[in-house]
Amino acid sequence: MDSALFTNSLVQSSRIIYTPSVFARTNLLYLQEIGSLKAISPHTSGRSDLSSYLFFIVLEGAGELTYNEVLYPLSAGDCVFINCKNPYSQGSSKDLWSLKWCHFSGPNLAGIYNKYVERGGYPAFHAFDPSAYEKLLDELYDCAASEAYTRDMRIYDKLGTLTTLLMEENWHPDVKTGASSGRNMLEIKDYIDVHFQEKLSLEGLAGLFFINKHYLARRFKEQCGTSVASYIQQVRITHAKSLLRFSEQTIEKIGEQCGIPDPNYFARVFRKVEGIPPGEYRKLWKGK
Predict the structure, then answer these.
(1) Count of CB atoms within 10 A of residue 67's CB?
(2) CA-CA distance, 278 to 140, in Å (whole number)?
(3) Which of 241, 247, 236 is nearest to 198 (CA)?
(4) Cβ neighbours of residue 218 under 8 Å, at least 6 residues apart?
(5) Phi, psi of 235 (to 5 degrees)
(6) Is residue 196 a contact partner of residue 255, using CB atoms and an 8 Å limit?
(7) E strands, 8-137, where?
């Protein structure tokens, strides 16, 4: 870990350049660099092909981000979350800005970022509560500056909180289609939650709600983050796990109560989701 304070003709900056352990690099979200800066004069800096993800928040002033050839004006309370493999540049306007930022990565972060984009996450957005992001960055800085032997785990925890907050604030299911109208799929999701014991299918739900099945399949995945079939399966298996743990019913009866009356098929579906047969799940979890 290298901590530095410096001033040049463009910025005053404080940063920590962090080197995570081999364990952190191969298993965790890990920090690469974190800091804050205050612009002294208008400036622009840019990078590309960097194996890193950048998050920053504008605390004061204004500037702009150019990412994938799109310009995003930024002001106090605005945040940026980007994949630095793609070309980008950022710079302060005459209304000199101050920022807090971090570069981070991890073996699973590409998948997390792709899910962020898939859910309609923007490269730049205005935070609902800017102080929450600033607090997280301050806590990350303190973790990186500490000598605690658990600091990689603490950093992982804070970066997990950061990515979760980014996901929560940036779910825009209509971004990819450009449509804001149309039936809310949560109505159909609620119907599945109540009627999962019954025979359910994409075609049946489409007919029940008078919707084209292809439109239903596309819109449900956009709004709920999973397919109709996967959601039905998820609800049924969750209910089955509860009955396996907290009831004395037979596995065959539990399958029936979860909308999968064929015991062999129920066992196959359960094993596909949980990795073990329902009987073994009951043995491992019952009474815990």
Answers:
(1) 21
(2) 42
(3) 236
(4) 177
(5) -65, -45
(6) no
(7) 11-17, 30-39, 43-47, 53-60, 62-67, 70-75, 78-83, 88-92, 98-105, 124-126
- DSSP assignment, residue 248? -
Nearest to 208 by CA among 174, 225, 199, 182: 199
Torsion region of 243: left, alpha or beta (phi above 0 gives left; psi -120 to 50 gives alpha): alpha
- Give the count of beta carbons closer than 10 Å to the beta carbon of residue 64: 17
Q: What is the pTM of this model?
A: 0.70
Per-residue pLDDT band for 170 (boundaries 50, 70, 90) equals: confident
- Span 173-197, pLDDT tens digits: 655 444 444 457 888 999 999 999 9
DSSP bridge partners of 33: 17, 103
Q: Give Rg (Cα) of the chain.
A: 24
The single residue listed with the structure tokens 């301050």 is 138
SS3 89: strand
Q: Are 124 and 74 in contact (CB under 8 A)?
A: yes
Q: How far, in Å, CA of 145 to CA of 21, rounded?
A: 15
The residues, any chain, with a CB within 8 Å of residue 184's CB and separated by 6 or more, are 223
Tokens of 78: 């605005």
| Percent of the chain's residues with pLDDT above 70 | 92
User: In whole angstroms, what separates CA 161 from the centre of its chain?
Assistant: 10
Nearest to 102 by CA among 137, 126, 135: 137
Residue type, 42: P
